[in-house]
Design goal:
By secondary structure, the chain is mainly α. It has two domains: about 10-70, Arc Repressor Mutant, subunit A (Orthogonal Bundle); about 75-210, GntR ligand-binding domain-like (Four Helix Bundle (Hemerythrin (Met), subunit A)). It has helices at about 10-20, 35-40, 45-55, 75-100, 105-120, 125-140, 145-165, 175-190, 195-210; strands at about 60-65, 70. The chain is elongated and about 55 Å long. About 70% of the residues lie in helices and about 5% in strands. The N and C termini lie far apart (about 40 Å).
Length: about 210
Amino acid sequence: MRTANFPLSVDEVHRELLRKFITGQLGPGERLPEIALAAQLGVSRTPVREALRRLAGEGLVVLVPNGGARVVSPTPQELEETFEVRCEMECLAARRAAKRITPAQLCLMEEQAEEEDRLIRDWDVEAYVRTNTRFHLIMAEASGNSVLGEYLENILARTFAYMVFVQSFLASDRNPSVGEHRAIVEALRARDPDGAEGLIRHHLSRTVGDFRA
């Protein structure tokens, strides 16, 4: 929280609320009263209101006319449809990245995967989500399509929040995502667009399958 002399900006309020979603501090269907949130964050209602509108546009908040805001409660179908869209976007990113990725970007992706492994063992959900997101965004950046990167950043935040709503995706210290991420890096290093796409599809379909289990 900032002091009154250094209030949080709309971007910072947005990031803080998003962090609360991803770490499970705000659950599905929970009301988001502007006055209470403003008091918690030490800001006026204006940046809170704007941040909630932004989150609504990202599919994480529902704005109820004359009823304030609440966290979404995604149905299993909505979750699967969201992952379906993410999968197609990431497959496009993977195919493009396989032809364009630089050694430096490959190194960064490897570093994120190794950091994920450590964070899973340390049970640090917030840091894990940041690192996992960074892994996927580096691949999007390597695709060379900035618009694709912007859309992926949005849907990554949405799917991670949904994952926390449904279950803890750090329920085990042997999260298969780490091995899958390493395999994706190797396919990109081999300049294998078909292989990279196939690994992305397996990675995300396995994640959705875990929700059904």
